[in-house]
Amino acid sequence: MPPLKYLAEGEELVLEVRRHWLVLAEPFASAVGVTLVAGILGLFVSPNDGSDAIDTLVGLAALGFAFRFAWKLWLWWVDRIIVTDRRVIEASGVLTRRVASMPLTKITDMTYVRPFSGRTFFRYGHLVLESAGQQQAVDEIKYIRNPDDFYTAVITRTTRRLFPPPGPSPEVPRIKEHDDTGPIPRVR
Question: Residue 148 pLDDT > 80, yes or no?
Fold first, then answer.
């Protein structure tokens, strides 16, 4: 899905990522495990007469887990997390598309978490975005692929707003010591 349709006029795309493939590990392992158990169970039960109902139920369970994995794979494929020069956008869903965004100006705190497995083996992380006293549409993003790049993209845009780059400061007019600012109003 092209993320450009979610951008406002004049908004620039900074980064677009898909969640880390590790979100598919549990559905994949479940599908493979149930299929193996179904196959082994079928070997032991099938030689007996009248085992058609058991084979059918076990086969349907294995098929259900395979469909569940296919659904999770499809969701993973279409979901995107987008950083622009103005917002963080999370576009998700297949049948019902959900596009949640949080303006960078609303971000007050950010927690960046890299679990041991994400730091050493799989290169993923989690990001918690907080705003002053209100719940936002995007508040926690889990399993971010290449999280250092994502964190840098977000933090660069938010700190640029809070701390503009150094440059020539505008000249502040100085008031002479003896300048009169006018009469002091009296309070009656």
Answer: yes
